[in-house]
């Protein structure tokens, strides 16, 4: 009888265990919408992420998922740990063989920077691809939150996103009534290139009270001529350069003494990674830009 009871208890235990296991819900699929309105879904948090632009690399690290990044492209230099990750080529020409060998479970691409045909091929292989193209400050914050959701780092991503929102709003309030300054932003030198009002850099200028002299051009990053800059006669010229401390592009404008920006010594440098990458460090770059434009107002 004792043996019968023991067997009965064991059977009851097994049944209870099986019932308990069956009652545990399956892990819910995580889905987000990327910047092209595509739905990206993962069955489990991404553990092997490849970022296909320097900006994407920064965003993933900032979202708290740096440990999951296994591949990056050239010039992915921030944070410093990113330099230790496997290179998969440049953002303009991906090394697909190396990329696929990393067995990624999430790719973070750049809509206007990565070759469309290579992105299409990666999609055709069935790899989860999140396409990034922030055009507004809020887009930077929501990108952090979406990537945090896909990587299983929601809390970290949300905290960084909220800090970014608070910092941007503080700058917006501080410069809300600032007198306008007509600005030319140089994004490249040969060919000479700028940005229109749809670009995030122009959004930063506007927040600081800057009026983009080429804001109404139809292309996001239009090519222009020196003659066009002379005709626009900006009150301030802002540029990055070929490095984080290279002001050569500004020096080239000093020969045009007829420009208001040159006469007033309103030639300003902002480290390119702080303003040309749509990441949380854009807050720092925008602060620098606002300080420059405040200086320009004082020299008006």
From TrEMBL:
Positions of the Fe/B12 periplasmic-binding domain: 48-297
Keyword match Signal: yes
Signal sequence segment: 1-28
PROSITE patterns: FE_B12_PBP
InterPro entries found in the cross-reference section: ABC_Transporter_SBP, ABC_transptr_periplasmic_BD, Vit_B12_bind_prot
Keywords: Signal
Keyword Transcription regulation recorded: no
Protein's recorded name: Cobalamin-binding protein
Organism of provenance: Litchfieldella rifensis
Source lineage: Bacteria, Pseudomonadati, Pseudomonadota, Gammaproteobacteria, Oceanospirillales
């Amino acid at each position: 009888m004792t043996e019968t009871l023991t067997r009965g208890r064991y059977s009851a235990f097994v049944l209870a265990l099986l019932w308990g296991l069956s009652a545990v819900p399956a892990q819910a699929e995580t889905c987000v919408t990327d910047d092209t309105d595509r739905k990206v879904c993962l069955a489990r948090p991404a553990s092997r992420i490849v970022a296909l632009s320097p900006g994407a690399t920064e965003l993933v690290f900032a979202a708290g998922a740096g440990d999951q990044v296994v591949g990056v492209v050239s010039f992915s230099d921030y944070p410093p740990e990113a330099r230790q990750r496997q290179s998969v080529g440049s953002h303009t020409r991906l090394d697909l063989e190396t990329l696929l060998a990393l067995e990624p479970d999430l790719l973070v691409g750049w809509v206007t920077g990565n070759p469309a045909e290579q992105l299409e091929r990666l999609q055709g292989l069935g790899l989860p691809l999140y396409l990034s193209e922030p055009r507004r400050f809020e887009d930077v914050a929501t990108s952090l939150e979406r990537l945090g959701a896909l990587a299983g780092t929601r809390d970290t991503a949300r905290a960084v996103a909220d800090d970014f929102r608070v910092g941007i709003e503080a700058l917006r309030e501080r410069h809300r009534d600032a007198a306008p300054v007509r600005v030319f932003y140089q994004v490249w030198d040969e060919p000479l290139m700028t940005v229109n009002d749809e670009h995030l850099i122009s959004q930063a200028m506007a927040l600081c009270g800057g009026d983009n002299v080429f804001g109404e051009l139809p292309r996001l990053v239009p090519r222009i001529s020196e003659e066009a800059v002379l005709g626009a006669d900006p009150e301030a010229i802002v540029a990055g350069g070929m490095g984080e401390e290279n002001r050569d592009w500004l020096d080239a404008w000093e020969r045009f003494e007829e420009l208001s920006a040159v006469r007033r010594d309103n030639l300003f440098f902002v480290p390119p990674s702080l303003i040309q990458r749509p990441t949380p460090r854009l807050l720092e770059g925008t602060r620098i830009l606002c300080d420059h434009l405040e200086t320009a107002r004082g020299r008006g």
